[in-house]
Amino acid sequence: xxxxxxxxxxxxxxxxxxxxxxxxxxxxxxxxxxxxxxxxxxxxxxxxxxxxxxxxxxxxxxxxxxxxxxxxxxxxxxxxxxxxxxxxxxxxxxxxxxxxxxxxxxxxxxxxxxxxxxxxxxxxxxxxxxxxxxxxxxxxxxxxxxxxxxxxxxxxxxxxxxxxxxxxxxxxxxxxxxxxxxxxxxxxxxxxxxxxxxxxxxxxxxxxxxxxxxxxxxxxxxxxxxxxxxxxxxxxxxxxxxxxxxxxxxxxxxxxxxxxxxxxxxxxxxxxxxxxxxxxxxxxxxxxxxxxxxxxxxxxxxxxxxxxxxxxxxxxxxxxxxxxxxxxxxxxxxxxxxxxxxxxxxxxxxxxxxxxxxxxxxxxxxxxxxxxxxxxxxxxxxxxxxxxxxxxxxxxxxxxxxxxxxxxxxxxxxxxxxxxxxxxxxxxxxxxxxxxxxxxxxxxxxxxxxxxxxxxxxxxxxxxxxxxxxxxxxxxxxxxxxxxxxxxxxxxxx
Length: 494
Ligand code: GLN
Prior knowledge:
alpha/beta
């Protein structure tokens, strides 16, 4: 059962090959047997999942169930889930049980999806490797010595290890697309404002956006159909009509103009990644698309601009964690200042502290103009590069990450080398555009490589269509991680 995509499971559930309860039990059993290898879950909500599955079976029996009814998914641990720990990968929130659901959690539950639990992540979504999690690193199911990417590393590892059919993630600077690329999955970062941020623990509010991680573009479309909504509880939610993201998956892409930015194919790009991305572009040409060299001249400024803006916003957002209102509180504080200081000192990990320091510095009087305002000006230039490019092309294609998954521990002691991983994903967030990562092959050492497509504002339907068409012509997305004997035993029983 765990080999099936959402689209396949929809049919099986309706044909009564198995029930949602059986499917959910199967996934819970796999998590129990296998997740000690991957550490992809922080919390497994078995009872709640089985209860939702029972309700889903009743809805399926009535015959009018929605697409996701009875499908086992999991949520990144930064989406508030009523009555279930929402730790954000941090000691600070390791005791936080929200009294309400995030809008997307509510939307997916209303669509009948069964939540298996909460997935591991970099602390407060800061990172590209999942190594900054208070709950320990998650491992890449393709190679457990490697990171699954971050910050939605657990969400990607869970889908790649077939411990959930699809998951939710958040992408502030690449955290859906990069782990999807490292784990051989399809991950969509919607346009800023398309999906509600209400109930999603804030990292950098002007960049954060939730989206799905799935096996295929079709599954991502089914997830987005349920996730996307206008939400008056999120003041940046955009009230424009939602497409049916499934409806246009089969549109022809003949004549599609694909922009290929020269800046995405320069020094620092791994040879295997370059070869596989170029092969994917050649495949698109065969399918009737045309390739157009373009320039996004301010790409090299994305890392410095992002690593000022994101920490600045984070330093403000994280000031609410003071030991008074939420989360961790130190023992026996001497006075109020001691309470603040020690609660934050004990509750936050190193990367989070580093960003609070950088952000507070960049926002402080005397440095605001030199750093924060300058970074915002650069952000505007990056956005303009895309606005200009989209007058000539329909989508922009390139690599997601300069290299396939790196080893655990390889970059964790050098923050700058970790930040450099984000070069191709950050510009999409700075501009507020949508982007998708889809598998385009395996490197010479058998690690997945992703192709990134960036779309214009609210062009999710187009991106999913272009990705789906690729998946109709190739089978990279069908390759699955080689999982150890324990899972094979389980497979043979199914
Ligand atoms: N790797 C980037 C960072 O560390 C992006 C993280 C994200 O998208 N949440 O900030």
